[in-house]
Amino acid sequence: MKRLVLLGGGHAHVKVLADLAQLPLAGWDVHLISPYRRQIYSGMLPGWVAGHYPIEACAIRLDTLAGRAGVAFHETAGVGLDLATQTVRGADGSTLRFDALSIDTGPMPALGDLPGSAEHTLPVRPIEQFIAAWPALVDRMLGQCRRFDLVILGAGAAGIELAFAIQRRAAIDGWSHLFITVMGSDELPLPGAPDRTRKHIARLLAQRGIVWKGATRATRVEAGLVHLQAGPPMAFDACIASTGAAAPSWPAASGLATDKRGFIGVSRSLQSTSHPNIFSAGDVAAYADVRPKSGVYAVRAGPVLAKNLRAFCEGKALQAWTPQLRALYLISTGDRHALATWGRWSWSGSWVWRWKDRIDRQFMRRFGTEPLEASP
Ligand SMILES: Cc1cc2nc3c(=O)[nH]c(=O)nc-3n(C[C@H](O)[C@H](O)[C@H](O)COP(=O)(O)OP(=O)(O)OC[C@H]3O[C@@H](n4cnc5c(N)ncnc54)[C@H](O)[C@@H]3O)c2cc1C
């Protein structure tokens, strides 16, 4: 029997698993490798921080999904690839041979350029580590009588959503001594969004009492202090790093074709440009048509990846995918309020939050999570 290995349980692979649960792949033995038994849906993570959802409501059970699909589950991280022997090496010392491989392991936190950040900040990724560390950060803040300064490095969707979510939680739980600063290298938050939207986000930050420190580049972090390219260093009690996506080192080290930054080069069929029996999707992939690293494109790649893996295994023709140019981004801005952007258009309000909540719940239901109720 031939073997297909799915490395990582990212947004595209959950669709592949759901597809396999509906229709098994005849003559192929399928395996999933993931360091965690669940996949956290990042779109809902800020909602967990804000207190809207319990964490189980934001999690897709990979082990259950794999079980339903007849896929063997291996609880470990892939740490190396041997392309000559066609094997994946796991962090637990295991090796797994493959005839076809698909990689959807997401990005690594981009901490490389910021000395001291690995030691002195809490990165948002791996998300499971952030989730595990968050209660201790809250305890530390609650245990401090004086002002508690939380600095968030990075003003992309993740950093901004987290800032609003933490502020919402602070307002509800009475953390009045918490002061949040978001720092970004551009003049305005949310790089890549239209100017009008960015100004709107800056206004919302100010309205919620979150300090926006734009045009500021952090150069080094030490205990309690972030050094800046210009001006005096900034003191903090806790620092969350949300500084963007970097590639893991093992794909390039294995000899797999990658782009300059180390993301796996794939054609329009999501097939590696150097190894036709290897596929990749999500943030770890460098698509033929360059698109921002975002959950939207990882989710959109799912159905194409599912079809093409099946077609490859059955010896049929692959489908080409051109990711849409514009994507709908729904950014939660705290207090059951959200902002939607589509190209140069944007809308905001409580109705946008309800719309986002509905889309997120529908997404989770598709992958077997029970319908959930927002916490009061
Ligand atoms: C707080 C937050 C808010 C965000 N908001 C938005 C938003 O509003 N809109 C948007 O489009 N994007 C948003 N993003 C970005 C979005 O999360 C990512 O673009 C998306 O998760 C990428 O999906 P993926 O499938 O590539 O990877 P992931 O979702 O990261 O999934 C990768 C999976 O692979 C596993 N894995 C990791 N390493 C290995 C390994 N070595 N071996 C095996 N398995 C591995 C991980 O545990 C995980 O299960 C947000 C991110 C964060 C953190």
Topology:
Elements: E1 2-7, H1 11-22, E2 28-34, E3 38-40, H2 45-50, E4 59-61, H3 62-69, E5 72-75, E6 78-82, E7 87-90, E8 95-97, E9 100-103, E10 108-109, H4 117-120, E11 122-123, H5 127-142, E12 148-153, H6 157-173, E13 178-183, H7 195-207, E14 211-213, E15 218-222, E16 225-228, E17 234-235, E18 238-241, E19 245-246, H8 250-254, E20 264-265, E21 278-280, E22 285-286, H9 295-313, E23 328-332, E24 338-342, E25 345-349, H10 350-366
The structure holds flavin-adenine dinucleotide.
**CATH uppermost class of the domain at 2-35 and 76-107 and 247-313:** Alpha Beta
Unreliable segments (pLDDT under 50, ≥5 consecutive)?
Answer: 371-376
CATH superfamily of the domain at 2-35 and 76-107 and 247-313: FAD/NAD(P)-binding domain
Q: Oligomerization state of this entry?
A: single chain
Arrangement of strands in the largest sheet: 5-2-1-9-21
What are the distinct ligands in this entry?
flavin-adenine dinucleotide
Number of strands: 25
The main sheet comes to:
5 strands, parallel
Quickly give the CATH architecture of the domain at 2-35 and 76-107 and 247-313. Answer: 3-Layer(bba) Sandwich
Mean pLDDT over all positions: 94
The CATH topology assignment of the domain at 2-35 and 76-107 and 247-313 is FAD/NAD(P)-binding domain
SS strand fraction:
25-35%
| Count of helical stretches | 10
How far the N terminus sits from the C terminus, by CA atoms, comes to 51 Å
Given helix and strand content, the structural type is alpha/beta
Shape by Cα distribution? globular
How helical, in percent, are the residues?
25-40%
Rg, alpha carbons? 21 Å
